[in-house]
Write a structure and sequence with these properties.
The protein folds into 2 domains: about 130 residues, Response regulator (Rossmann fold, 3-Layer(aba) Sandwich); about 60 residues, Arc Repressor Mutant, subunit A. The strands form 2 sheets. A 6-stranded parallel β-sheet has the order 2-1-3-6-7-8, sandwiched between helices. With about 200 residues, the protein is α/β, with parallel strands linked by helices. It has 10 helices and 8 strands.
């Protein structure tokens, strides 16, 4: 079972190698996207464990780049937002684990991914389930007003002026909208709301 590890923290990389050896053959490590891109095609690992956020990009970029190769990817990160998880899985990740996962659980997850399964940290799975439930929550009249103005191309400052509220209030409304629609950005919110019939474009 061959692995390649990508993380920008040298101490974490060392600890991870100690946890995974013996038992797994670690073909190489990288602390940034550029080094990973240079080394992964040369080493041909079965699985790449990568952090989500790297100094020069994202682990998701790596997954997209090598999706056509017979390599499976597991995200191992501190970030557990539903948006991050969804983006990783949509890109083709086979697993999403948090850095507080025990060594035994990481080893088990690697074996399961090699066997064809998908793995996810329990807290991440719970969060996705809650996000899925919130996707059906109705938008308030004020949230719909904000979203109409977003669709019209207004920025937060302009929306605040038009609605006579503070810009921080607009940001709060937007976060509630994102949570209810299960999206991560303004454009996706407009698209999703129009699909649900909340917004007529």
């Amino acid at each position: 079972m061959t692995l390649f590890l990508v993380d920008d923290h040298p101490l974490f990389l060392e600890g991870l190698q100690a946890v995974l050896q013996p038992g797994f053959d670690i073909l190489g490590t990288a602390q940034n996207l550029a080094d990973a891109r240079a080394l992964i095609p040369k080493t041909h690992p079965q699985i790449v464990l990568t952090d989500l956020r790297l100094p020069d990009g994202s682990g998701i970029d790596l997954i997209k780049e090598y999706r056509s190769l017979p390599i499976k990817f597991i995200i191992l990160t501190s970030f557990d937002s539903g948006c991050d998880v969804t983006a990783a899985m949509d890109a083709g990740a086979s697993g999403y684990l948090l850095k507080d996962t025990s060594g035994a659980e990481i080893r088990s997850a690697i074996r399961r991914v090699l066997a064809g399964a998908q793995v996810m940290a329990p807290t991440v799975a719970t969060q996705l389930w809650q996000q899925s439930r919130s996707n059906h929550a109705p938008l308030s009249s004020r949230e719909l007003e904000v979203l109409q103005l977003v669709a019209a191309g207004k920025n937060n400052g302009e929306i605040a002026s038009l609605l006579f509220v503070a810009e921080s209030t607009v940001k709060t409304h937007l976060q509630h909208i994102f949570d209810k629609l299960g999206v991560c950005d303004r454009t996706s919110a407009v698209v999703q709301a129009s699909k649900r019939g909340d917004l007529i474009l």
